[in-house]
Design goal:
Length: about 300
């Protein structure tokens, strides 16, 4: 609507020097801003953060249209050609949607380990991240710390100083707003098969339940997924814990999983349905039991399709 101020104008962009550690003792950056052709900017290898053409992207597009790229992209020279984006995948996509030919960038030479740390740190604080995005981002950074023997000197300021005796996960927690235990729970999600992880992202399976299910072997997770599809149910946190517990003492099969997922919850107060109204939808020779079976089946399917969000 004409005259309406865009919500994108309220977006506060972080200071690029502070974000990427580009300031030295003199307060100057170690490189100049360079305009680079958009088609020469390539995504970071195994980038865990999704770039979707959603409402948030539209806000970014509006901001770029109105103000331009306020915070330049951070890139490093590609191993073969072009440049690899360390931070700025969404801004690059906004340029593509607007038809812009170039984007302002800082070019910085980085090792794979340094680039991974900066890539994760520059994205992990976004509020709208999916569980899977955080899970794989934390895993990527933790893998870097483990490869480096828990050194704290990776890209200096990006990792910071660590106390003697800390594990990689504790060092990782020192540089985030998550506890080491919560980071471990996020990383556990990377052991889920994709269909189950998608259900966690969609909040059809609660985060805590997803963590418990991640301890099941992949083939058992596949059986669980097929059983969920057949029964039109999602495991609760209590059921997920029981599945994890049982999997430690014996091999779970489809029958065992089905019995556990079929456990009935305490009955709720009765709801009375008028036979006269039900007769409009069922054949005249249907018994009450047959009607009940059809109704429950349809309700289970409806709940499954809507997403039965379990409490964590």
């Amino acid at each position: 609507m004409a005259g309406r101020k865009s919500s994108a104008s309220n977006i506060q962009m972080p200071d690029v020097n502070a974000l990427f550690g580009l300031e030295g003792n003199t307060g100057k950056t170690d490189g100049e801003i360079v305009e680079i052709a958009v088609d020469q900017l390539h995504p970071f290898n195994s980038h865990p953060f999704r770039v979707l053409d959603d409402e948030k992207m539209q806000e970014t597009v509006e901001s770029v249209r109105e103000h331009g790229i306020i915070s330049p992209l951070l890139v490093r020279p590609g191993k073969e050609s072009g440049y690899e984006i360390i931070s700025g995948h969404r801004r690059k996509r906004a340029c593509e949607l607007l038809g812009l030919k170039t984007a302002p960038c800082f070019i910085r030479k980085m090792t794979d380990e340094e680039a991974t740390v900066v890539m994760v740190d520059s994205n992990i604080q976004r509020e709208e991240l999916l569980y899977s995005e955080k899970a794989y981002a934390y895993k990527m950074k933790l893998d870097v710390l483990n490869r480096q023997g828990r050194r704290a000197d990776l890209t200096s300021d990006q990792v910071g100083q660590k106390s003697a005796g800390k594990t990689s996960r504790e060092t990782l927690a020192d540089n985030s707003n998550e506890s080491s235990t919560q980071i471990q729970r996020y990383i556990r999600l990377t052991f889920l098969i994709k269909p189950l992880l998608d259900y966690v992202d969609e909040k059809r399976i609660a985060f805590g339940a997803g963590v418990e299910l991640s301890y099941l072997e992949p083939e058992v997770q596949e059986i669980l997924y097929q059983t969920m599809q057949r029964l039109c149910v999602f495991p609760s946190l209590a059921q997920a814990r029981k599945l994890k517990e049982l999997s430690r003492v014996r091999k779970l099969d489809g029958n065992g999983i089905e019995i556990l997922l079929s456990d009935e919850k305490p009955a709720a107060p009765a709801v009375k349905l008028q036979r006269k109204k039900l007769n409009e939808y069922f054949p005249a020779d249907y018994s009450a039991e047959q009607m009940e079976e059809v109704i429950y089946g349809l309700l289970k399917k409806w709940r499954f399709e809507q997403g039965d969000i379990q409490a964590d």
